[in-house]
Design a protein that fits this description.
143 residues, alpha+beta, Immunoglobulin-like, four-stranded antiparallel beta sheet, 2 helices
Amino acid sequence: MSRLPRLTALSFLVAALCLAAAAGCGAKFGNVSGDVRFKGQALFKGTIGFVPAEKGKQPVVGLIENGKYAVAGVPIGDVQVTVVAIAKPEPIPPKGKPVKKKKDKKEKEDKVATKYGEPKTTDLKFTVMPGDNTFNIELQAEP
């Protein structure tokens, strides 16, 4: 047998072994991005957290700005998603004009439900895959 067929066969064998080894060492993290909305509007600001269901994996936190977020390095697998909203500040009134606060039912309805802020109470769940992931969120009001 000549050397060329043996080298070709050996090259294919080495390549196959490398591919098999690489398949077992796949990515352990993914990137997650998306939109966060409340009452159909982009969330002003806030934080978003990804808490892995699997013990021993570290949570990852990112920022929400104008309803958008992008978080890199999220462990793959099932995660609980937490969101803490930061309310848009009230405009500063002109000097000399008193500010009257309105007290009505709508004030309570305009707040994001606090259940989203804790991994134990949030109902937001997602499965992170290797590579880029999209997870859009529509938050509900406080009951």
